[in-house]
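pipeline: protein-struct stage 2 | run 1193 | GTP cyclohydrolase II
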Amino acid sequence: MAATNGSEPWANALSEKFKDRIVLTTYPGQSVVDPVELNWGNADPEKRGPILVSRSKETLKKRNAIGAHGGSYAIYNALAIAAGDLPPNFRPNFENTQPTFQPPQQEAWGDFSKIVSMDPFGHNVSTYFKKHLDQGIDVRPTIAITRAHMRVAEIVDSIKSGSLPVDGDVVINSTGDVKVTKIAVEPVWHLPGVASRFNVDEGILRRALFEYTGGSYPELVTRPDMKVFLPPIGGLTVYIFGPPERVSDPNVKLALRIHDECNGSDVFQSDICTCRPYLTFGIEEAIKEAQNGGSGVVIYFRKEGRALGEVVKYLVYNSRKRGGDTADKYFTRTENIAGVRDMRFQALMPDILHWLGIKKIDKMLSMSNMKHDAIVEQGIPIYERIPIPDHLIPSDSRVEIDAKINAGYFTTGSKITEEELKNVEGRGWQSWEDRNLAYFDNLDPSTYYDSPWSDILSNYNHFWADDSRNDDRELATQWLEDDQDGEWNERVEAETTFELANDIWIVFTSRWCQRVRQIKANPSDMENERALLIHRMSKAERFLGAVGENLWKKLQSTGSIIEHSDPDFFVGRRYEFTTYKITRVAIHLVALRALLLRVLFDLYSLVDVYDGAIYETYRGLCFQVWACLPHLKTVHALSAKDTLLMVVPLYEAADSDELRHLYDIKIDWTVFGLAEHMSIEAFQNWIVARSAQWI
């Protein structure tokens, strides 16, 4: 209380802002305590009573619940008041905020055992509790219902491919707009009911909530008569496809996806888990069910990182990648950091299903045994469980999905054994830092065992693409790995191939692209993706950073780069190239076509974006590649298409001495389908023609 006596510099301002004395907590029977009656589980909202948590002068004495409105956003409300942006006595105007549809009242709304984590009457407080609002009592909604159009990239792809029709009702146009009803729900806990769900004593629950929220809510301990708590956590959002009235109709089929938040995947499309692919698959199946006359529902819970939080999740990622990301250690990594595997506690999840009036689930778009068991235990049968299709599983998320299947997740396939889990390994950071990939076009990689590159290639995994097509007209691309017996074995189908500018490119999912499905449908999207992922090569160290530590060491040992002892003297450049040695070393390490041509293409995409220095670097590297062509042919004979990447910077040099210098280099022109001997004029004309094709 020293602050109120003026011992702190902000004491006077505090007394001006808050004129009433501080009330740290209250106790039953005090003169300042006269709560409005709250009968949880009463089916009549007037008899049940409103949820009151405001500490305003008009409501403080009548409070019947602990906490604050807004869930995890309550702190921002307090911050806005402290900053003077929000009046402390502000009251919302609820005019025109009524729900866009009135959900029919369900029996569960009056059953205190069926709904314990949300206020079943929280969507219509201006109607149900108008009397209290007219008396100046601060009653707030905890549920809001609206409608909107939704557009999701994967849904747009399905519409374009024809797998999802435009019906004009649910999917309203070919651009991918989908009608949806949205319901936002903030958590409201009936503490006796929550304790019963977890089979713990209410007193233990109250004490734990008090102690492990930093003592933020002392009334959890001092007011056992208050049975309702508004916790400072995220809520949920319901997305309904088709007429929302169908959701509670037992005569129509229902497709349901229960999804727990994963910001990294859901929004930013990380490929370390299946969250976004399963979410978008669930949305599409929900839409299809609505189009078939049923109802589709997706419920999105704010439980980031299995309710452990994003900081813990990223710590787990670090532990996995540094310690060996294998499926047998998947849960151990989390337990070592968080102490538990999962804190989502699905026991409270079915409340929203009861509130919606869902009596059965025809299609459950979830593999989780915890979600399944929680729903079934609440008396809601599930007739069909649909796992995520294999082709939607990102390569780096096999660790997650196989570990979960082994731990009890539903699958229609075979269950992997404990021993097999040890061999399911995610992408390590080495593949992030090193481009250890080579690209072979219409070549049998086994021929390389007799080549000078066998000792190099045996250390890396490789992609091999041929021109054959499968039934879906996709390129038949295989992932090959060199085993200890010197055999090339097919590992898994790689669906990361697409065509661009009449050339075949392999997009390495471990490095270059995490949106393969969108890019296959919209190749122009690759330009944006590339701009995000490439390394600018205007300085030598950026180039070296792109190719990894192994090449870095090799370049230093061969004198291919120069390290300046005083970088500031050399305009901040610590490293510089020496002639075309760097190109030759790159050939020896990673097969030039996979490494350098990829870099050249990235550089070309930046020509119109960045300054001239990067273009000069691009041109210089092109000349180095051309100078090494005789040597390059030993590894892989470039086709005429490959030269297009290198022809553009030569276009401007067609009449220059640089072209003469390049022509004088002894190159086997038959590599490009040209005559073995050709004049400088013919060479010039060929460059101009090729440049015109590309430009």
